[in-house]
Amino acid sequence: EPALALEKFEEAKRLEPDNVLVLENIARLNIHSKSCGKASEELKPVLKLNPYRQNALVLMLKAFECSGDLAEAEKFYTKNRRALEAGDPQILITRGRWLLSKGRAEEALKTISKAIETDAGYPEAYYWRWKILISMDQVAIAESEKYLSICQSPQPRVLRKYKKTPQLCAEVAAVREYI
User: Fold this and answer.
1) pLDDT tens digits, residue range 107-152?
2) SS3 sequence, the chain?
3) Does the predicted TM-score (pTM) go above 0.70?
4) Which of 33, 65, 77, 129 is most buried (CB neighbours < 10 A)?
């Protein structure tokens, strides 16, 4: 229950206002509930304490994306590119999504493929590869099957590994419909 979790994290924040883990979790829950502005406000003090903190950078990027402010997201990405791309497939997926939104499908496909090379078990990489291929009027059965195989009954280790993805496996119904 995200609302209950948010309530508990808010309580923890009152007790420890500078606890970066608490602030990151509040931001994550706000992104999940589409409270994008609140998420970025929670992350500002975290990034002030440590401007290279990987989780905070990823979450801030997701907060910009959540709010639909792709121009600000692009500036943030460019400024923090080196730290962001340090082996995190989520960043590559976010980048691929931006490229797709700008009509640069070929470049987006290469970026998403790099995310799969980085972590072949990350389901969202297969979802976005599927989405890009569909936008290019190409067949994407292998991608949809891989996404569904990971998401239909995710193993606990998968859930733990990708817990920082606010909407993990959220598109199962749409992909299932495609097949």
Assistant:
1) 999 999 989 988 888 899 999 999 999 999 998 899 999 999 988 8
2) CHHHHHHHHHHHHHHCCCCHHHHHHHHHHHHHCCCHHHHHHHHHHHHHHCCCCHHHHHHHHHHHHHHCCHHHHHHHHHHCHHHHCCCCHHHHHHHHHHHHHCCCHHHHHHHHHHHHHHCCCCHHHHHHHHHHHHHCCCCCHHHHHHHHHHHCCCCHHHHHHCCCCCCCCCCHHHHHHHC
3) no
4) 129
